[in-house]
Amino acid sequence: MGPGFRRDGKGQFARRSLTVCQYACALSINDTLSAAVSIGFHGLAFAMVLYLISVGLSVTMGLMGFVNLAHGVFAMAGGYVLTSLMSRWAVPFVPALLAAAVAVSLASIPIERVLYRRLYGGEELDQVLLTMGLVFMSVAGATYVWGPLQQPLQPPQWLSGAIDLGVRSFPAYRSFLILCGAALVTALWLGIERTRFGARVRASVDNLRMAQSVGIDTSRLFMTTFALGSGLAGLGGGLGADLLAINPSYALQNLAYFLIVVAVGGLGSIRGPFVAALLLGIADSGFKYLLPEFGAFFIYTLTMAILLWRPHGLFGRA
Amino acid sequence: MTPGRAVEAFARRHRYHPLEALPWLASIAAYFVFPEYLALGAQILATILFALSADLVLGYAGIVTLGHAAFFGTGAYIAGILAAHGGGEPITGLLAGATAAALLGFLSGLVVLRTTGLALLMQTLVVATLVAEGANKASFITGGDDGLQGMEVWPIFGWFRFDLFGRTSYAYCLAVLFLCWLAARQIVGSPFGRSLTGIRENVRRMHAIGAPVARRRLTIYTISAALAGISGALIAQTTQFVSLSFLSLERSGTVLIMLIIGGVGRLYGAFIGVPLYMIAQNRFSEFDPVYWYFWIGLLMVLVVVFARGGVLGIFDRFRR
Question: In this predicted complex, what is the ipTM?
Fold first, then answer.
């Protein structure tokens, strides 16, 4: 009980307890509201990062049927390029971010041509072995170049602190993350829905053989999609460096998150992973806030339930 | 080939071949040739059993799992907790570990095996993560992050004490592995085992000829879980330590990797892949303790590029 709980006369007690109650109510409503806002805000930012990283995985898995467990490596590489450009060569944030995305995208092309391509349509197990091998090499490689410690992201001046919107103030970097993510998602959806390239991708996901027989160069399409997906992952890894810490075992630590987004969203879908990322992002930050002890239980049980209900994901097709 | 000959050839498929004695002769020889490496040897033998259990579901029933560590770790924790609370009789520990793992396999299999493909992969991963999370939360009994300590394992049959050099451990693991291998070989050669291969190759056809597909998959999943549990219990008893890493995704991934390097679906892949991986890991981590992951990863990539189907796959190519 609060300080008002003192039995010094009947009337006073009643009046005091009323004010205490009002105070408590107001406090709890305000608290609940601000908790909800901060969960929603953090969750939304996390969801954007998860989506940017995983959408490429969803498309390449749906397009080529390739079990790519090494997708997180590209996100990690993006994070490393961004943080080193900023801290070692003092490159400003935005150019460094773009450079990270482009660099990862370009670097992924030879990997796709030399290693991945020979396993398209091959055994799932060989794909698992190859991509886990790449993950292992990335762990050692990152330790060799950047050391075992995590790389901190220093957001630029104009993105640190908070933005005051009158009603409430929001952390600036998270707001930037959400806006950036929303813009990219819109661009991506328009690109897939409205451009010729997008139409080719959709056609090939729908029916690969038919797409080939109407003259779509699927091999080149695979390469472009792969590079695009890796670039987006690199961008997501860089942008989300303060949510998913950049360290050598990044690809292994966060593999389950990326796979959950893809599996729950539905293979080959563009929208599915977005819904899945929103669900996962908000549920994850909600549970971490409210029930930090048992958050993981709920997340994983939820994943299991969704996959039992819809084995092909929310937006996947049988 | 006349029908009589064909029947004979079919019957001969599951007779013992002289080459099958090779791994056992090699294991016995290793006991005398490398007496200073017996502790590592015991680990390798127990891990072979783990990979063998994974081969039953992966190679024979075609169930791709990323959560086999759940059963391995359950077996290890049950045997470990028993030994830490005054129940250090090793054979009882093995049986208890196997029973608990089989139970978990059966219950989770009821749910998990309803799906296939990526969903199945995710479900197995999720089950293993839930078990690991549970073990982490139940730190009052599992020791949580610090690992389970204070295990006291009694001598085997009240007679063979576990020694510092790992002689008893080695012989114990070898004997248990041999018995489990005999069982696995019988299962694979039985009509039940043949029907599993049928399910892997063509589910629809097996449905069409009236095979109880779901029940068969659940049965092999449970058997495989029990064997994985025995393997975990073996490692717990011989190293006297259990930690959360026994349940990790990494553990589930590594056993797949070892199996694929050896060759999947032939019962002997485990006997080649596991020693190859673990000896390479031991050597690499000795001369390059920080970066041995790189060399292991490179080995895996090279196997995919040059030796599809694992080491045993190469022999197949030569025979043809």
Answer: 0.79
